[in-house]
Design brief:
alpha+beta, 1 helix, globular
């Protein structure tokens, strides 16, 4: 089973296709070569790659589901 995690783009370096993404307080560098994003966008990330842009509502819904016990 694969798990993709939503996060918010904090900054983008288009020259090297890397973005700094905030995952609910944890920031990581993510490869953005598969999507066209800018600062403030929400993305879903799998294996270090942003694979799809999301709306803020979708991101909240997914985050809430992941936090359920």
């Amino acid at each position: 089973m694969c798990l993709a995690i939503p996060g918010k783009i904090k900054s983008v370096d288009k020259k090297i296709n890397i973005a700094l993404v905030d995952f609910d307080g944890i920031e990581r560098q993510v490869n953005i070569s598969l999507v066209d994003v800018k600062k403030g966008n929400y993305v879903i990330v799998h294996a270090g790659f942003a694979i799809q842009k999301l709306t803020s509502k979708d991101t909240k819904d997914i985050s809430d589901l992941l936090k359920e016990k």
